[in-house]
Design brief:
About 25% of the residues lie in helices and about 40% in strands. The chain has four helices and five strands, in the order βαββαββαα. The longest helix has 13 residues. It is globular and about 35 Å long.
């Protein structure tokens, strides 16, 4: 299964620890969405926005990995699954169920995300923009 990571799961060390079968394929952009941070957890989320992009990592994950991610993402309470097509292939990601206001991420969480941006060689523009709220 193809999985699109855009927050802390971009971090290769964290992703490998959480999802043993996962394999990073490449960086891709999710079009017409923007990155934000919200909820009492101050975690990453995506929301529709025309002419905007969310850079992320495309991973190949197993069914077992998907179950582990479901637990980590508190699916379906905190995050729900969102599917999109990438060159004709179905890709799964998560988006928050309740769209609360922007909340600045914790330093620890943000550092994990920043390392993920380095691990996946992503452009930090979208991240810097998201941190402005």
């Amino acid at each position: 299964m193809l999985y699109f990571a855009y927050g802390s799961n971009l971090n290769h060390f964290q992703m490998r620890r959480r999802c043993r079968d996962s394999f990073f394929l490449k960086k891709i952009n999710l079009r017409n969405f923007r990155l934000t941070f919200r909820s009492k957890y101050r975690a990453a989320d995506i929301e529709p926005k025309k002419n905007s992009i969310v850079p992320g990592g495309l991973f190949d994950i197993s069914k077992s990995d998907e179950k582990k991610l479901d637990l980590y993402e508190d699916h379906p309470i905190l995050y729900k699954k969102y599917y999109f097509s990438y060159y004709g292939k179905k890709v799964m990601t998560y988006t928050m169920v309740k769209k609360t206001n922007f909340t600045y991420p914790t330093k620890r969480y943000l550092n994990i995300v920043k390392q993920g941006y380095l691990d996946c060689n992503l452009d930090k523009k979208a991240l810097l923009l998201a941190l402005k709220g």
